[in-house]
Amino acid sequence: MKELKLMKGNEAIAEAAIRAGADAYFGYPITPQSEVLEYLMAERPHERTGMIVLQAESEIAAINMVYGGAACGRKVMTSSSSPGISLKQEGLSYIAGSELPCLVVNVVRGGPGLGTIQPAQSDYFQAVKGGGHGDYRLIVLAPASVQEMADFVDLGFELAFRYRNPAMILTDGALGQMMEKVWLKEPKPRMTEYPEWATTGKTPDRERNIITSLELDSGRQEKFNLKLQAKYREMEEKEVRYETIECEDAEYLLVAYGTSARICQKSVQVARENGIKVGLLRPMTLFPFPKKILREMAPKLKGILSVEMSTGQMVEDVMLAVNGLVEVEHYGRMGGIIPAPDEIVSVLEEKFIKQNYYG
Amino acid sequence: MAENLKTENIISTRNLVYKKSSILTDNVMHYCPGCGHGTAHRLIAEVIEEMDIQAETIGITPVGCAVLMYNYLDIDMQEAAHGRAPALATAVKRLMPDKYVFTYQGDGDLAAIGTAETIHACNRGEDFTIFFINNGIYGMTGGQMAPTTIPNMKSSTSPYGRDVEMMGNPLKITELVAQLPGTYYVTRQAVHTAGAVRRAKKAIRKAFENQSLKKGLSLVEIVSNCNSGWKMEPVEANRWMEENMFQYYPPGDIKVDGKILST
Amino acid sequence: MHPLVLQYDGDSEEKISKIMTEEIIIAGFGGQGVLSMGKILAYSAIMQDQEVSWMPSYGPEMRGGTANVTVILSSERISSPIINTFDTAIILNQQSLDKFENSVKPGGVLIYDGNGISRHPERRDINIYRIDAASEAAKLGSAKAVNMIVLGGYLKVKPLVELQNVVKGLAESLPQRHHSLIPMNEKAIKRGMEIVNTVHEVG
Ligand SMILES: Cc1ncc(C[n+]2csc(CCOP(=O)(O)OP(=O)(O)O)c2C)c(N)n1
C-alpha cells in the first residue's frame, strides 16, 4: 500500500530499502546517518520481509559483506558518511571490478579528516570519478528531497542490476536529518530468482560461477577495462537525469544538486523578483553527468554559476561540458555552512552582472 | 612385460587405488613443488565430493598464494579483498543459511590485515568454516615477515631473524579465537605426512559437518611449509617445520564441540 | 516511473494568488520539546494537505545546549528548507531570543516564553506575544507539556492549522503506546490558547 509519512531523509532511505525488497543491509554507526541502521534495527525487517540487517565491526567489514551478498545476486546495501565512505573505497573498487550490483549511501559531512558532522558536498570527486583504485565509475544519484531519498533507493537498485555496477546515493547531513512528506511506495517482494552469474552453489546443469576482479593477463585486463568503459558510455547515453527550473528564458544559469539545489530554487525566485532572468539546472544523476543539456543551453547563456557546499568540484564537470562556450564560475560554502538564497543571488550579480557595467 | 602391467589392466576400475577428486578441475596448480596449499585444496575437494555438497558449497578465496583457488575447485567461488573473506562469508551464510560456506586464508590475510574481520566473525559465531593456512610467511609477495613468523625466523623483511623486541611477537590467533564464545570447533593440523593428511581430512570434514548444527564457527588451521619463502628444499622445509613451527604451533584440537580442551 | 527530465516553470498566475507559506523557527534548550513541537506542527499541516519541511540543528550543539528547528508549511512545493529570515519565531530561552529576534521578517511574529528571560524582545516592527508556558506547565503538573502550551499560543496567534488536525498530527507523530497522552496534550494546547498575551502589535 502507498503511504504518506513525515520522515527524516535517513529514515526514508531505510524504509524504502525494506519496500524495495532489499535482501540485506550492513552498516556501521556514524553521524549524520546513524538513523538508517537505527531505523532498520527498530523495524525488524527480518519479520516483515526476511531482510537481514547487521551492524558490522567497521565500514570495511560492512562493504565486504555487501560484496559477498552481491556476489550471491542479492539486493544488498550499506550506508555511511564521509570518513566511513573513505574506508569503503577498496571494497567498492572490488565490487566494480567484479561487476556486481549494490547500493551505497553517502550522507556527506564536511572534511577533510574527521572534519565536521555538519552537511557538505565535498565528496563529489570521490563519488563521480571512481573513488577507489582502478578505472571504474559508480552510478551516482543526487536526491534533493526526502521523497527522492526514498525513490532513489529503488532506482539505485534498478540501475545497479541493469548495469551490474555499484550505485551510490550521494546526499548530505541536511537531507539526511530533515523531515518532509514522503509517499512510500507499495512494497516489492524480495527476489526469488537470482541472476545466472550469482554464486549460489554449482548445480550440475551449469558451469561454476566465479566472482573475481583478478586478471593476470594484461591483454584480457585491458579488454575488461574497455568493456567497463563501454558500459559507462551506455549509461551516459541512456541514464542521465536532471531537472530544469525556469530555464526557458534564462540568461544566467545556476547548476546545483542536492541541498544546494533546494537553496538555489529559492535563489531563482529571489533573482526573478529582482528582474534577473535566472534558471536552475539540477542534476539528479552526477554520474552520468548531464553534459549534453548543458552544452545545448550554453550558447544562449551569459553565465553559469555552479553552487556547491565545497571548494568547487562539480564546477569542473560543468566547465568540461560547456567547453568554453560560456563563462563558468563557482560559489561554495564549506565546513557545514549552507549558503543563503540571497547570498547566491548577490554572488551571481557580483560575478557576472556588475562587472558588465564596467565593461 | 608382465601381463598385469598392460595399459587396459592399469586403467581398469578393478585396479583403481586412488583417483583425483571430481571437485578438482584439470587446471595445473601454480603452487611451488612441495607447497602444502595443493594438498589442502585436495582434501577440501575430497570432503565436498564425499559429502555430496558441490551444489550447496560457496568458497571464498583470499589474497595470497591461494588467490586462484577458484581455478582448481569446481564450485562457485568468490575472490575477496586482502583480509576480508570472513566479511564476505558472513553475508553469504546469512543470506543462504542452508549452504556450506568456507573461507580459505593465509596467515597474513587472516591474522594481520584481516584480524578484525576474523575475530568478529568468530565472536559473532557465524556458522561457516575458516581454513587457515599458516606458513609463517607472506608467500605470494615474496617471503616477507608474517604475524605468525616465529622468533628468530628469517624472512625478507626480517633478514636477521625476527627480533621480537623490535618486531613484536608472533600471533597465536588460533588459540586466541578458541577463547571466543562464537567458535565451536578450533583445531590445528598439518599436511606434511600421510598420517597428518588423514587427520587433517577428518578435521576438514568435521568442520563442514558442523555447519548444519548452526552452533558457531569452525576454524581449521593447517600449519604448512613455504619452501620457496623459507629458502629450503621441500624435505628440509618439512623437517624445519616439525622442529621449529610445531614448537610454537603444536598440532591438535584446541576446542571441540564448543569446549576448550585442557592441555 | 523515474522520469529522466523534470521541468518546473514556476506557478501559474491562478495558483500564486492562493499560495500560503509560513516559515517558522522554533528554538530553546534541548529537552524542552522544540523538535517534537515542530514535528507535530508539520504533521498537522500534512493533515491539511500542505507541503512541509522540518530541518533541525543536529549533533552536540556547541553553544550551550540549544536546539532549533526550521519548519516550513506551504501550499506549494517548498524550495529551500534552510532560510535565515522567518515569518514566525517561537522562542523558549534567552540564547535563542538573542540569536533569532533579528531574524523575524518585519511585520512577522515572535512568541516567547517569559520564564527565565532577562532581556525581553525590543523590536517595534514585529508582533510580539508572550506565553509563560513553563510556569503554566508546572501548575498543570506536567513539565513535559511546555511545548504543547506554546503550540497552543502559536495557533491562537496564527490559526493556520485546525485543532482537530493537530490532534490527528499528534496521533501520527506519537508511537501507539503514548496515545493515551493525547487528551492531556490537547488540554495543554487549549490552555496555551487562553494564556497567550499580546505584548506589542504593529499597525
Ligand atoms: C591491501 C593489500 N595490501 C597488500 C597486498 C599485497 N599482498 C598480497 S598477498 C600478501 C600476503 C599474503 O600472505 P599470506 O596471507 O600469509 O598468504 P600466503 O601467500 O603465504 O599463502 C600481501 C601483503 C594486497 N594484495 N592488498
For the record, the CATH architecture of chain C stands as: 3-Layer(aba) Sandwich
Ligand types: thiamine diphosphate
Q: Which outline of chain C best applies?
A: globular
H/E element string of chain A? EHEHHEHEHHEHEHEHEEHEEHEEHEHEH
* CATH evolutionary superfamily of the largest domain in chain A: Thiamin diphosphate (ThDP)-binding fold, Pyr/PP domains
Q: Helix segment count of chain A?
A: 14
**Largest chain interface and its two residue counts?**
A-B, 38 and 33 residues
How far apart the termini of chain A lie comes to: 60 Å
Major sheet: arrangement of strands of chain C: 3-4-2-5-6-7-8
Mean pLDDT, all residues of chain A? 96
String of helices and strands of chain C: EHEHEEEHEEHHHHE
User: In angstroms, what is the radius of gyration of chain A?
Assistant: 21 Å
What does this protein look like?
Chain A is 42% helix and 20% strand. Chain A is of the alpha/beta class and 359 residues long. Chain A has two domains: 3-238, Rossmann fold (3-Layer(aba) Sandwich); 244-358, Rossmann fold. The N and C termini of chain A lie far apart (60 Å). Chain B has ten helices and ten strands. Chain C is α/β, with parallel strands linked by helices. In chain C, helix 3 links the parallel strand 5 and strand 6. The radius of gyration of chain C is 17 Å and the shape is globular. The mean pLDDT of chain C is 89. At the A-B interface, helix 4, helix 6 and strand 9 of A face strand 1, strand 2, helix 3 and helix 5 of B. Strand 8 (179-184) of chain A pairs antiparallel with strand 3 of chain C, so a sheet runs across the interface. The complex binds thiamine diphosphate. Thiamine diphosphate is lined by residues 63-66, 82, 106-109, 133, 135, 137-141, 146 of chain B.
Short description:
The complex is a heterotrimer of chains A (359), B (263) and C (203). Chain A is of the alpha/beta class and 359 residues long. Chain A has helices at 9-19, 34-43, 45-48, 59-71, 82-87, 89-97, 124-128, 146-163, 173-177, 218-238, 258-273, 291-297, 314-322, 341-357; strands at 3-8, 24-27, 52-55, 76-80, 102-108, 139-141, 166-172, 179-184, 210-211, 242-245, 252-255, 278-283, 285-287, 303-308, 328-332.
Looking at this protein, list some descriptive labels.
heterotrimer, B: 263 residues, alpha/beta, Rossmann fold, eight-stranded mixed β-sheet, two-stranded antiparallel ribbon, 10 helices, globular, C: 203 residues, Pyruvate-ferredoxin Oxidoreductase, domain 3, seven-stranded mixed β-sheet, 7 helices, 8 strands, 34% helix, binds thiamine diphosphate
